[in-house]
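To whoever is on call:

I kicked off a structure prediction for a single chain this morning and the downstream step that reads the tokens threw a length-mismatch warning. I double-checked the sequence; it's 159 residues and nothing unusual in it as far as I can see. Pasting both halves so you can look.
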Amino acid sequence: MYKTTIGEFQFEYENAIQTSSDFALTQAAGGGYQCVFNGKSVVADVVKIDKESKQVVLRIEGKKYTVQIKEPIDLMLERLGLNVKASRKLHQLKSPMPGLIIKVLVKEGDVVKQGDPLLILEAMKMENVFKASGDAVIKSIKVAERQAVEKGEELIAFA
């Protein structure tokens, strides 16, 4: 079950392809999208897609609407009382894999916002940019550029 929220309207549907009778978004032949919203069929332009926050901004008849999409995992966590956004207080960044620190993009005392790049780790010949998963202040940086790190090693501590 998926849930879509547009303002005060909420729509539920069984899978990512199907839609409810009150909300549907399908690609139109002319390049835009045909949107059925609250029983009315209109043309919609996609203004912005934010995959991380699972939001799509649509322009319908000159007005912008933010569409919030909740996937089955989001709904399950919500039913269990686990609010992912509330638990986003950052304490530390640990390396998810062994690798080599290529570049540290922040310094102690920096204020970072969600999505800001923190450092670049090379692993298996690929460069991985690690971004802040929430707003925080850099308390300390535990690694240096060109340093090898192991899986689970603390890279950055947040205040």
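Update from on-call: the warning came from a stale cache, not from the record. Cleared it. Sanity check on the structure: Helices lie at 72-79.
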